[in-house]
# Entry
Amino acid sequence: MYTKILVAVSTSQDDSLLASAIETARKYDARIYALHVVDPTPCILGPADSDYGLIVEAMQAHGRDIVARVSQTLYEQPLQAEVHMLTRPFAGSTVGQQIAAFGEAQGVDLILLGKRKAGWWRWLSEDVAASVRRHAEIPVQIASGTHAAGSLYRAGSRWSTVPSVRAR
# Structure
């Protein structure tokens, strides 16, 4: 059913999202594209005399660490996988738009996202899942929960299907 699956990996993502993506890819014998998008927007909200270039470099270095961790996890698996990192421009697009555009450029059949964590400060940040759903013509699934470490679980029960606005 699926031949190419995109999993969006964030800085706060736990390994259960990646484990579920691996399980889903095994189930369908699909290729995984893991994507981390560096979002430099928060550094704009800092003091006016901040060195934004230095802050973005630090954010990109952290992104490279995330990509290295994800690469290590995926390359230990008996499946085809690619790991990518993009830096979102300061203006003109959102993280969700970047994920949707990457998925369409790669020709993926499914986009897997983690569930947004709750918190009173979240109103300041973008709802990435909603943005991906608005901009992607690809089916989007959002993680509906977590599983205990080391437990047996079914990846299919971990995902709730959230069709894209323009899903085919």
